[in-house]
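Attaching the record inline, Q. Sequence:
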Amino acid sequence: MRLWAIRMSQPKFTSSAAVVIINESGEVLLLDHVLRPFSGWGLPGGFISHGEQPDEAVRREVSEEVGIELRSLELFRVRCLDRHIEFLYAARPDGEPKVNSPEIIGFGWFRPDDMPEKLSPAQASLIRSVLYDAN
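Structure, as predicted:
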């Protein structure tokens, strides 16, 4: 419902930024998000605010959601999905995550071969692409 309302109020397009955060053990940080009622788990990120650059947006979202900073932030891919533009980054964490927002139920570090059951196949595929390109 929220996504529909946002997209209907935007006459041209919406944009978001997400990040695959990889720790020293090669695990990926995923968030169990309140606003993902059917899939739950997913990459950290969110919508880009008016006048905000995509890298600034993803840093802001990660800081707001789990209170960590990002090192080695690199743009991995930009893709268009109908009227939505998505910026996908890869990064290393600086600090230990903690639930910092009422939007987040929990978080976890996951190995590529042991992702949460409710992670969408599209996000799992993106994560594998980033991990295999990063190595």
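The chain has a mean pLDDT of 89. The chain has one domain: 13-134.

More tomorrow.
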